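We modelled the chain as a single entity of 320 amino acids. Its sequence is:
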Amino acid sequence: MAITTSAPGKLMLFGEHAVVYGYPCIVTAVDQRVYVTVEKNGSDALYLEAPDLGLMAYSKTIADLGNKDVPKSVAFIEMLYKRFLEQYPQDRGIIVKTKSDFSSSFGFGSSSAVTVAFAKALMVLYEIDLTNKQLFDMCYQAVLDVQGVGSGFDLAAAIWGGTLFYEPPAKTVETIDIDGMAIIVGYTGIKADTATIVRMVGEMRRQQPMVDGTMKEIGDLTQTARQLIVERNWEHLGTLMDNNQALLQQLDVSTDRLEELIQAAHQAQAFGAKLSGAGGGDCMIAMALKQNQQAIETAIESVHGEVMHVSINAEGVRVE
């Protein structure tokens, strides 16, 4: 019996970097998804086919999971499977196949989405019933195994879906309604390494005590943004988005390309615009009335940004 599941990617709306240090963020799930199919194989090994990750055939015995060299592209799957087998021992392995709606170049959280989809597929395959929080805990441990650090917001988006007010690690996961607001996504064409940028900001924080103040400001701003969303005060929310971007500039994670796309969105009457994610490249977002969406997309394209046509508030992990 083969089980197929899928989980969505994510976009950060407010709270980048501060969320790593315990402050809240606001994140939304997007409709581009990662799909995982699993089935039992009768052997004592994991077999993986992940063409979107550049792997056509990868195998590892159950006994060797997590040992020797683990390719970066399969690290989350392998470590999640190792953790799963520690809790739910099996003497026979599985075949895993993945495919994705989106390129990992775009910083939409493909690693977290594939981790969550894989974990959910294992739950169904072995008829194990877990709450969303229990599923989160298993996936979060695998992320820590691979990265050493992580706030888990992208896992939460993949599991719960929708738009979330999130406090790490899943201390608060609250669904909020942002219908009525248009979010435009522009890609700079530059792939950034999230882990490297997070470490860079961490080093800056160790050397410059004022960075703690910046993180607190981002956290306070995110709390205010949550209330403005409840009030449907989009114009003020756009101002907060600009303020969030100014604080991220202080952390030195914005780039000339990001600023160019952000400025173009402002000139086309966006309420606010900022980078989305760790920075260093990847994506920016703009917030606007829906009737202004096309003009903002055209403005982003006029400065050679790539508009990513994604829908927000996507459904969380599911069985296909």
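As a brief sanity check on the tokenised model: Residues 183 and 207 are 35 Å apart (CA to CA). The radius of gyration is 20 Å.
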